[in-house]
Amino acid sequence: MELELDGRRLARALEDHLARWRERTGIAVEVWALPAGDVPRAVAETVLLTVREALANVERHSGAATVAVALTAGRRGLRLTISDDGFGFEHRTAGRGLRVMRAGFAGIGGRLTVNGVPGGGTTVRGEVPRAALDRAALDGATAREERPLSGPGEDVLPPAG
């Protein structure tokens, strides 16, 4: 998968993806903020997939010249904002991509909103409260503890769930 974390921090994975996307599309990317620390893996994966989907929408539909990305994680939780200066849109129906992004954030205890203004660009905002981040961290630690150890040459899959 293009956005695999491979042991990298979320900020580094985002920087790498945004640089590749900018080179491929020619759309300018402004990075306003990235977290200094890391977040639970399930949250990081959801953020990466959301950024990927939002950027795909920008590329396909927006006509934008610039995209701005900000991601912060702190005492109050995680906040993601992706804004473009494209055509914007009216909120008559949510396409598959928007539904997937919303479902991803809901799955980690967060919320995602999309605000498009015709002629004024689109902003995607995701929030995950601190309590949900803490639960995700605990769930990730529990999953690692429950995983059986494998011997040399053995492949052991983590428990389903």
From TrEMBL:
Tagged with keyword Hydrolase: no
Annotated Histidine kinase/HSP90-like ATPase domain residues: 47-130
PANTHER family: NITRATE/NITRITE SENSOR PROTEIN NARX-RELATED, SIGNAL TRANSDUCTION HISTIDINE-PROTEIN KINASE_PHOSPHATASE UHPB
Biased amino acid composition, Basic and acidic residues: 139-148
Swiss-Prot/TrEMBL keywords: Kinase, Transferase, Two-component regulatory system
Organism domain of life: Bacteria
Pfam families xrefs: HATPase_c
InterPro entries in UniProt: HATPase_C_sf, HATPase_dom, Sensor_HK_TwoCompSys
Disordered: annotated span: 139-161
Descriptive protein name: Histidine kinase/HSP90-like ATPase domain-containing protein
